[in-house]
Protein: Phosphate-specific transport system accessory protein PhoU
Amino acid sequence: MEKDIHSHHISQQFNAELDDAKTRMLEMGGLVEKQVRDAISAFMNLDSGLAEEVARRDNKVNNLEVEIDEECTLILARRQPAASDLRLVLAISKTLNDLERMGDEASKIAKHSIALANEGGVSRSYLEIRHIGDHVGSMVRDALDAFARFDSPLALRVAQEDKAVDTEYGTAMRSLVTYMIEDPRSIGSILNIMWSLRSLERIGDHARNIAEHVIYLVEGKDVRHAALEEMEAEVKG
Amino acid sequence: MEKDIHSHHISQQFNAELDDAKTRMLEMGGLVEKQVRDAISAFMNLDSGLAEEVARRDNKVNNLEVEIDEECTLILARRQPAASDLRLVLAISKTLNDLERMGDEASKIAKHSIALANEGGVSRSYLEIRHIGDHVGSMVRDALDAFARFDSPLALRVAQEDKAVDTEYGTAMRSLVTYMIEDPRSIGSILNIMWSLRSLERIGDHARNIAEHVIYLVEGKDVRHAALEEMEAEVKG
Structure:
């Protein structure tokens, strides 16, 4: 698969530039993965020190987006890639945007964990954060692996997982509303859990977006907003 | 300004293609503006019919994103634009993405208004929705006007407004939390207002993103994640 996609290079130098942009984007992906993981840990342990680190590191994620996207623009300007090379540059650029937004959401989770810690936590467990967080974390990892290996079947599985996360999210929210009604003094605290779950759900959406970029890149077909069945047809067809 | 930006065209045909992509993007922007406006009306009047229309039309927004983005990719592939033409194509493509996400948020507001109507509304007013909605609505219009006219000072004002919206949003949320605590039976209904405010705040963020794309396009400088002061220096410098 990788050989096919890389069959149009006009020069070794161009090849090296494309590889560099992809590698740096995947490194940024690794940093964002860590941000998500650390934000979830900070939340589960009400560890405000770790949460502040996550919030601080968001700057680094933002800078990487701008730097690597500039690299992509330079490749477009100088090398004027066509066909699959063009798709690769565009898919990298779009993925950068999704990674940056995942980083924002991780930073929001960190801030909500600080707010929750300041309120002294809540007597109820935060197990939904752990559960959905683990699920979303593995979607992020798989989406990046799918990009690294140009693996569209894996990308399709990420898109399928997103549906499961949405269902888990709905269930968790309903149980939190019930808890709020039973114990109105906990409203402020529970809202921090709700906002954080929302952020996790958004991170899942961005992982799905990355998966769609991978399918576009490998299959040459834009599957944004396509139903899962259409995506399956593209990947298997 | 417009003349400068358009000074590198290699052909009339290329010129026409670029103009067409820009025009279609701005038309999509007009549709998204309407979606936001209708979603706010549906909410204020608990008009589920209108809300359902908004939710249905979101498909059209999604399709436009994919179609116009494909047009951009074709321009990149065939015309291999450089300098300001390249920036224009990339700015259009990034703006499409922000518009599509605004459309998603409008559709979420519509769904929350249906949920609120089904619960019979709440005795409290939804004035925050109207107030912040009007503010955000004018940011969206200004961001699109700034793009249409390559007007970076107007784009800068949009970015400045986003800060004001964030402050209004914080105040509104605190007052809603207080209301919930005083009247726990309203929790479910108030959450629909909160989620909708959150969507409006996100729409403001996307308007700011579009403003940043305009500054990038006109000034040649990527100001994403820059502080307002840095943006001011770029636009005025």
About this structure: Residues 11-236 of chain B form a domain with the Methane Monooxygenase Hydroxylase; Chain G, domain 1 fold (CATH 1.20.58.220). The interface with chain A takes residues 59, 62-63, 65-66, 69-70, 73, 76-77, 80, 82-83, 86-87, 90, 93-94, 97, 177, 180-181, 184-185, 187-188, 191, 198, 222, 224-225 of chain B (CB under 8 Å).
